[in-house]
């Protein structure tokens, strides 16, 4: 059977010497393609029968942890542990060779994770390519949620029974989500910091009546009625107001601040940036809402997160607002991308991650699918919507699928929109999971401060 094993391995297209995470990723990709066959093998308990072979393969490849590089010909050794697993699986599933091979692939991926799964993140980081193709391996990051939220957490996705068909504890495959791009960025791994157990989040609500305090332009010659260039009618005054509310957030001990969508213009974002720099960057991060601007000659809705020290990350909205009255938001919607920004702990190890979306991006099925796979620690969502029931329902589902925390900062008009949520703080805990503040319960301009660990309003 060893010749069959060697031929099978050749079909994986492995390099003679390859990064170990890439090798494990090829095995996981086979498991994804043959998921039904892998379920058949598991139903027959072949995974249990091959557990000793997994341990033997891990012992045989223990030296791979020295370099995280694998001479892939070792896998085809007819006297090696993988060959033994191959033979055993085919004996146990003699009438189902496809299931046998799927289980062998799974066993190999698990053994490589056992040997040097802690090095997968460094392999990925060393290559310096953050944008992933569907099915490409990446290192998921399991934040220390107990440290932040306590022990009463909701059930982890990996404990739900069939989560690990195509992932190991320290390696997963990028999803194929309707053309949505996936980015796992280490670019600011040392500029970002994980939230602490006493972290406070400030939601800044600078506008009392967004539809009257903001203005926008109709887009001439558009195929359908369209609008762009949403901005404050008095941009300097709004920017100064926001700087004052940020000062209040700082005085109240907040380390994270989130502003609603389109509450500033480009000059206003610059004013906030200068204000934070002059104060010595007192906040760990500020999600400074979003602005309508131009990027590469195209109109975009761009959100900016300012980090302590001045580094920044951005997100471009890909799911535009539409209205029977205003028409559609005239922004570029491609490429559509969900980015996960990885954070290191004080020992330089990946320990947390953030994601940033704008308003309707959160309602995209493909975005939710991607987030369910990527499982960021904290998702920040600047928004402007008078209808928020869908946001609240989707946030409930999202934290169940990911164990992520979510902070939504939304602006809405008083009156008919009093029932809209202007703040949603969701946490992966069994009790007091979601804190919601309605428009009718606040009086903007206002700074609201929440304890991230408990969801309590200060």
Could you list some keywords that capture this structure?
single chain; 458 residues; alpha/beta; 8-stranded mixed sheet; 6-stranded mixed sheet; 22 strands
Write the SSE topology.
Elements: H1 2-10, E1 17-19, H2 20-33, H3 35-43, H4 46-49, H5 51-60, E2 69-71, H6 81-92, H7 97-116, H8 120-127, E3 131-132, E4 137-138, H9 145-149, E5 172-173, E6 181-185, E7 200-205, H10 210-213, E8 214-218, E9 226-232, H11 235-251, E10 256-258, H12 266-278, E11 285-295, E12 298-307, E13 312-316, E14 322-323, E15 327-329, E16 337-344, E17 350-356, H13 365-374, E18 378-384, H14 389-402, E19 405-411, E20 421-426, E21 434-438, E22 446-451
Parallel strand pairs: 6-16, 7-10, 9-15, 10-11, 17-18, 18-19
Antiparallel strand pairs: 1-2, 3-6, 4-5, 7-22, 8-9, 11-12, 12-13, 14-15, 16-17, 19-20, 20-21
Helix pairs in contact: 2-3, 2-7, 3-7, 5-6, 5-7, 6-7, 11-12, 13-14
């Amino acid at each position: 059977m060893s010749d069959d094993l060697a031929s099978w391995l050749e079909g994986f297209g492995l390099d003679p010497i390859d990064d170990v995470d890439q090798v494990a990723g090829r095995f996981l990709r086979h498991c994804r393609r043959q998921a039904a066959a892998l379920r058949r093998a598991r139903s027959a308990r072949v995974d249990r029968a091959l557990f000793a072979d997994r341990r033997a393969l891990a012992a045989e490849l223990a030296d791979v942890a020295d370099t995280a590089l694998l001479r892939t010909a070792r896998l085809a050794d007819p006297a090696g542990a993988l060959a033994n697993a191959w033979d055993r699986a085919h004996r146990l599933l003699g009438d189902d060779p496809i299931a046998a091979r799927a289980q062998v692939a799974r066993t190999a991926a698990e053994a490589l994770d056992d040997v040097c799964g802690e090095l997968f993140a460094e392999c990925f980081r060393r290559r310096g390519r953050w944008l992933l193709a569907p099915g490409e391996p990446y290192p998921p990051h399991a934040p220390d949620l107990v440290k932040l939220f306590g022990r009463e957490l909701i059930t982890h996705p990996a404990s739900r029974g069939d989560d690990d068909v195509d992932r190991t504890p320290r390696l997963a495959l990028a999803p194929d989500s309707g053309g949505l791009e996936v980015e796992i960025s280490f670019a600011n791994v040392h500029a970002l910091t994980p939230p602490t157990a006493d972290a406070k989040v400030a939601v800044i609500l600078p506008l009392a009546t967004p539809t009257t305090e903001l203005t926008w332009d109709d887009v001439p010659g558009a195929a359908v009625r369209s609008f762009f260039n949403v901005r404050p009618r008095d941009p300097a005054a709004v920017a100064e107001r926001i700087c004052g509310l940020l000062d209040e957030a700082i005085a109240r001990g907040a380390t994270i601040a989130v502003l609603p969508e389109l509450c500033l213009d480009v000059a206003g974002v610059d004013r906030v940036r200068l204000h934070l720099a002059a104060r010595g960057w007192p906040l760990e991060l500020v999600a400074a809402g979003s602005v309508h601007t131009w990027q590469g000659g195209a109109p975009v809705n761009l959100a900016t997160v300012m980090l302590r020290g001045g580094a920044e990350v951005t997100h471009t909205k890909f799911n535009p607002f539409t209205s029977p009255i205003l028409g559609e938001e005239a922004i570029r919607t491609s490429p559509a991308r969900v980015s996960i920004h990885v954070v290191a702990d004080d020992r330089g190890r990946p320990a947390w991650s953030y994601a940033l979306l704008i308003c309707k991006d959160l309602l995209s099925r493909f975005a939710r699918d991607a987030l369910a796979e990527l499982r960021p620690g904290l998702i920040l969502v600047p928004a402007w919507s008078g209808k928020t029931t869908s946001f609240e329902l989707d946030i409930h589902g999202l934290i169940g699928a990911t164990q992520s925390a979510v902070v939504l900062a939304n602006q809405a008009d008083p009156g008919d929109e009093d029932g809209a949520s202007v703040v949603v703080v969701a946490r992966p805990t069994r009790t007091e999971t979601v804190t919601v503040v309605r428009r009718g319960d606040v009086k903007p301009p206002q700074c609201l401060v929440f304890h991230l660990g408990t969801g309590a309003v200060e």
